[in-house]
Amino acid sequence: MRQRLEAFFEFSRLHTTWKTEILAGFTTFITMAYIVLINPAILHEAGMPLQAVTAATCLSAAVGCILMGVLARYPIALAPGMGLNAYFTYSVVRGLDVPWQTALGVVFLSGVAFLLLTLLGLRQRILRSIPHELNSAIAAGIGLFIAFIGLRNCGLVTANAETLVTLGRIRSPQVAIALFGVLLIAALEMWRVRGSILLGIVGTTLGAWLFGLVHWKIQPYQPLAIRATLFHLDIPGALHIGLIEIVFVFLFVDLFDNLGTLVAVTKKAGLIDANHEIPRLHRVLLADSLATLIGSLVGTSTVTSYVESGAGVAAGGRSGVTAITTGLLFLVALLGAPFLGALPAAATAPALIIVGSLMVSTVSDIPWSDPLIAVPAFLTIIMIPLTYSIANGLGMGILSYAGLRILAGRLDRKDWLLYVLAILFLARFLYLSKA
Predict the structure, then answer these.
(1) φ and ψ at residue 413, rounded to 5 degrees
(2) Largest CA distance in the chain
(3) Residue 255 sits in which domain range?
(4) Quick one: which of 78, 227, 328, 359 is 20 to 30 A from 394 by CA?
(5) How many distinct structural domains can be found in the chain?
(6) Could you read off the pLDDT of 107-121 as tens digits, one per residue?
(7) Is residue 149 domain-resident?
(8) pTM of the entire structure?
(9) Residue 403: inside a domain, yes or no?
(10) How do residues 156-168 score in pLDDT, each as one tens digit?
(11) Is residue 269 part of a domain?
(12) Within a domain: residue 350?
């Protein structure tokens, strides 16, 4: 049996062992375990039951990782995505006043669309029609969006009638604790400490507790807490015509985020073939789409691949056993999920700010000397946080890129899908301005 498994995961070709793969799985889990605390905290602001979302986070991550390990055999871990959870809460539920059950239905539909694109092989056309630099811009814009939410939640940035936003009260305990948390996580990152974000959240929570900012009590253990969100998605409500664009945003961001992570991790692991192509790409996207479907059913936002998987690769992970190990550890985390209470904003805000700063680093992939790419990329980055919408930033980026290509005389029939997307976004903006 052991030899069969080693042959299935290609241990010999990849020059790896069980010990290496399992340790790599532990490493990946430690570096991304913060999502068990952060994702429920964000979705709780959408009105979702905290214990249920925490359990859903662990379960969806576990299933996603195991699917990736078994189907695609890559050392890539999956969990509810940062950025997409913020979009779910702040743009869809709170911004558009959409019930969280309907928003889960939208996530489900985006997963179905992703699955169909994968099965029909249309994903390659979409990926080829949009420059990969815009993917970097989207990631950077989402990073600013997440950081802005963190700054606002801890009170470091507040509303102002004259200037829209201004500096908050630095002397308030909540702001002081949040700044301490930012410095703590940044220092741990600088010292290359594994699990720096998770440790930073714990340290900041202890500091908040000392200042009397923690007011929650540990809830009784409820193994079936997940029933509060399990199968509570509203698919008929999500089919409303005004929500179709949200389905597209979830789909588009997940598609490019997954591809970007896949390229980064496979390059680092040396798993790209001689033709510079990623083997079993079809299975990778299949695992991702199935994980999103399952996540929406149990009660969480879009599940996607995590760039923190690179930590496991750096530790020697090369096969799907790394991802499976990470998934099993998320199942272990599920046992303690019902004990978690609401973390104070002073504890979660620093993590959001640091994660935002890490995502903004993708701007280095953008050729700023080329206006054809630089201008659409800049509009994408700046419009996401300033309009509080990933959809607006994405639309401005695609629309300006398509327009500049036409003005440059680079209209090509093979890019028809790009222009279709641009027309759809133009129609959306015109409709919103009329409303």
Answers:
(1) -60, -30
(2) 70
(3) 2-366
(4) 78
(5) 1
(6) 999 999 888 888 887
(7) yes
(8) 0.79
(9) no
(10) 999 898 999 999 9
(11) yes
(12) yes
